[in-house]
Amino acid sequence: MLVLSRQRDESIIIGDNVVVTIVDVRGDKVRLGIEAPIEIPVHRQEVYEAIQRENRKAAEMKPEDTEGLPKQ
């Protein structure tokens, strides 16, 4: 892991097209601004983990598990 010190309004660049900027620091909280191309998803870790859990559950479903669900 690379550990950097940054102050408010300073940024780091990841690759050629992701910019992370320190927006604000209040006590033990840091607000980050993230600029990335639309094709690069950006999620908080807990949201990402929830998405992965739901994707695993969906991949394990059998056709009979969907009986009774409305058809679109």
Automatic annotation (TrEMBL):
InterPro entries: CsrA, CsrA_sf. The keyword Thylakoid does not apply. One of its GO terms (cellular component) is cytosol. It is found in: Cytoplasm. Keywords: Bacterial flagellum biogenesis, Cytoplasm, Repressor, RNA-binding, Translation regulation. GO terms for molecular function: mRNA 5'-UTR binding. The keyword Ribosomal protein does not apply. GO terms for biological process: bacterial-type flagellum organization; mRNA catabolic process; negative regulation of translational initiation; regulation of bacterial-type flagellum assembly; regulation of carbohydrate metabolic process. SUPFAM superfamilies: CsrA-like (SSF117130). Homodimer; the beta-strands of each monomer intercalate to form a hydrophobic core, while the alpha-helices form wings that extend away from the core. A translational regulator that binds mRNA to regulate translation initiation and/or mRNA stability. Usually binds in the 5'-UTR at or near the Shine-Dalgarno sequence preventing ribosome-binding, thus repressing translation. Its main target seems to be the major flagellin gene, while its function is anatagonized by FliW. Belongs to the CsrA/RsmA family. This is Translational regulator CsrA. It comes from Aeoliella straminimaris. The gene is csrA.
